[in-house]
Design goal:
single chain, 219 residues, mainly alpha, Glycolipid transfer protein, GLTP, 9 helices, globular, binds the ligand CCCCCCCCCCCCC/C=C/[C@@H](O)[C@H](COP(=O)(O)O)NC(=O)CCCCCCCCCCCCCCC, cytoplasm
Length: 219
Amino acid sequence: MAAPEADPQDHRFSLQEVLDSFKLCLSENKEVYLEHYVSGWRGLVKFLNSLGSVFGFISKDAVGKINILEGYLEGDNSSQYATIQLMVKYELDNQLVDLTKRGNHPESGCRTLLRLHRALRWLELFLERLRVSGQDEKTSVMCADAYNQSLSQHHPWVVRKAAGLAFCVLPGREAFFQVMNVGSAEQVVSVLGEAVPLISEVYQITETLYAEQQLLQLP
Ligand SMILES: CCCCCCCCCCCCC/C=C/[C@@H](O)[C@H](COP(=O)(O)O)NC(=O)CCCCCCCCCCCCCCC
């Protein structure tokens, strides 16, 4: 009997899949599971990849960071990386984080996650803008506005410039909604209505934890 063919949809982004990962992120006592956080990001990168090679430099950076965190999740101390809370405690207790300048631990879980965490704020702002947007609004403008209000302040000029150029070639709102792969525009808006508060909660919990531990400026 012939082997069943691989489902071509497997490689397609689905906003629902990302939503499911972020749903699984929070434990009962509001700890953030690293495994699901990372798989949420993997899903988002799929989306980015489906937009074309112009976004390759962004995708490459995100994948590099995802791989670092996955390395910890699969490494010898994986139980210390089950949640972001455990990771922060473990790395700080064992002096595994460069706190003021880059040194022996340039790829600590804490600094790596901080980069994705800052990008999550961009995502929250962008998805909310998309959710309330009208038919004729430009994704490039929504994306740039969200970026300028958040992530851009952590980037040097050259990265801001490259990001700005990439935003210009984003597909229009309708095509963008189609790539999200959840159905009609109404369905997209409804899934976004569920996704944004979840992403926002995960962001806030991480932000509070990092602020308490004074980790928000890790080099
Ligand atoms: C849909 C359009 C996607 C636009 C993405 C907007 C974010 C723009 C980020 C530009 C980052 C450029 C690459 C370089 C970054 C690094 O310099 C910088 C600092 O790292 P370092 O301290 O190790 O040096 N890295 C970062 O800030 C991390 C950036 C991670 C960006 C991940 C973006 C994933 C986007 C996923 C899009 C999903 C859209 C969802 C719609 C349903």
